[in-house]
Specification:
Length: 205
């Protein structure tokens, strides 16, 4: 995988961000967000009073954005120290296994979701909820990161991302890959998923 590492890192070299402070400010604003009353209530019903939107994982230098649709239903509990960012557990473990096996530092990735609140019991988000969260946070993340690659994880992420961007009047080039939960559920073999992930990284120009 040496050639892959050289390819990826050569594209990121000298692209370090000088706006880490802006990302931290955005994260603080995100943690306080309560604009979508239905989702706030859904968080409270599932997690009790110890709930909050789950923020992105970013070192401030990551130029490859991995974007899912939303945290799992039980993944926004502030009392659990190991759940402080998106994709920390569950299907995210597949991603971090990939990074390790490919010899890629996880800091080169900015990992996030379109919706920052955990998935409600009905598993659905309204168009208004998606657009509001994307406009307030995801769009700002993209501006601050200025990614060399946007990789959408799963069909739901792709559908909502393209729908929002078309309504917003802006467009960002992206690539698609299955959500890593496909591996956990046995729909996609791990080695096949790994091949798909590598092939997408090789599209970086």
């Amino acid at each position: 995988m040496l050639n892959l590492k050289i390819h990826v890192y050569s594209k990121i070299l000298d692209e370090s961000l000088n706006n880490i402070g802006d990302l931290l400010l955005l994260k603080k604003q995100l943690l306080k967000c309560s604009l979508c009353k239905r989702l706030v209530q859904a968080r409270r019903e599932v997690l009790g009073e110890n709930h909050y939107p789950l923020p992105f994982k970013s070192s401030g230098v990551g130029k490859i954005m991995l974007i899912g649709i939303a945290p799992g239903r039980l993944q926004c509990d502030r009392s659990k120290s190991d759940m402080e960012y998106a994709f920390k557990r569950g299907s995210g473990e597949i991603l971090f296994r990939l990074f390790k096996e490919l010899g890629l530092n996880e800091d080169i990735f900015h990992i996030t979701n379109i919706i920052k609140c955990n998935t409600p019991r009905d598993g659905q988000f309204t168009k208004e909820e998606v657009n509001r969260c994307a406009a307030l946070f995801l769009k700002e993340e993209i501006k601050l990161i200025d990614p060399i690659l946007i990789l959408l994880l799963g069909r739901q992420a792709e559908e909502h991302f393209t729908e929002y961007m078309s309504s917003d009047g802006e467009w960002y080039q992206y690539r698609f890959i299955y959500h890593p939960s496909a591996v956990l559920r046995g729909f996609t073999p791990y080695e096949k998923y790994k091949e798909m992930f590598v092939s997408q990284l090789k599209t970086i120009k």
